[in-house]
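Here we describe the complex-level prediction in full. Unlike the single-chain runs in Section 2.1, the two entities below were treated as one system.
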Amino acid sequence: MNSTTQLDSFETALLAELRRDVAEHPAPTPSSAPSRPPRRRLRLAAVGAAAVAASLVAVFGPGSSGGSPAYAVEKNSSGDVIVTVHRLDDADGLESALRAKGIDADVSYDADGFGPTIGTGPDGEPLPGSQVPPAPGQGKSGAGGHVEVQGETGPGHAESGPGSGPADGKDPCGLGGDPATLTQQGSDWVFTIPADSPLQDRHVEIGTDSTGALSVAYAGDEPSSMCGMVTVTRGSAPRTG
Amino acid sequence: MRAPYDPLDRIAREPDALEAFYRDHVEAVQRFVARRVSDPHLAADLTADVFLAAVDSAATYDGSRGPVVAWLYGVGRNAIAADARRRARELHAVRRVEGRRLVDGTALARIEERLDAERESRRLHRAIAELPDEDRALLELVSLDGLSIADAARVLGVKPATARVRLHRSRARVTARLPEMGETQPPDRALPLEVHP
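The structure predicted for the assembly as a whole is:
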């Protein structure tokens, strides 16, 4: 970024063209043109993720829900918060329900599209070497520090990314133990946050992709670390435990 | 000191403001393009496209939401995607500025050098091509173009926390895919999950 950089012949010629374009077709001053079309588009992009999720729910939303609840959130007598997701629907509702139980969560089922889930190919076939290779410099991590891949693709343990932990094999999340569990029970997902879990007062992200993998992620204690669990459902026999 | 193109919408009205903006960013834009396409003439066209798109959408830049270059990369992505769509439909729309017409021998050599330097980046670009659009955009901006997660999230209009989750998943997917693509070792710098702002 240096204004004195010597431009080559192409850059000089392009600059001349651009100058001419602006000189011949100057944009109106902001006051005389309160709403240029591109502005509107970017305004939309600037809307927060929660609002985006809301709009997607409106589009793909609860029309097919038939009235049955998409989720249940309860707090048992010992203070564990148990989230049962029956259907990937009403993300906003789940977010509010979690907030009511004191859990600060972002829930977004706004499909990250249609890509292959971890460890599976486009047809749900296991990829060769489908176990996501462990990140360099990380040893066996504690339960809180890895992504668990469950399902017919075989159990793989995908550790969280490089740089998320020091090279001494320490749990990159730094939360110790198992801050929560995510399992499948029949067609439901059950996500349990024990009463003494650090996630009771930590931001949690719940998301999915359209292949049906539900993931729960949360910030670890190490700066910038992101830890979590993924359950792969596609084509797999439901597994509990 | 304020840049001569502050506020940025001046570049759409004042040729001098545009020139200052152009001189500050022409190298970054050409490298951005070189990380994505390998044909020098197309690269010249796209460089022109990106700057024209920047002029057209200069009024959308909000200085409180991150550095100009992050915004410019966002504009650049859209411009390049629009071009790809046009070419996919074999529509040869007349460009306002035909970048390739402006290229002579010496400039061609410099463009080719740049393309050569970004060869590795283009390989990664192909490797992440199968990710869902949103995930891909994010991984591109962070690991290919070097934006911080926070800036990339702003460009794409998502929360930083959401961006981190997506990057986390994308990285796992790409890491699983790379061996299939004949990559022996994913380039280290290519997949930084954690980028400190």
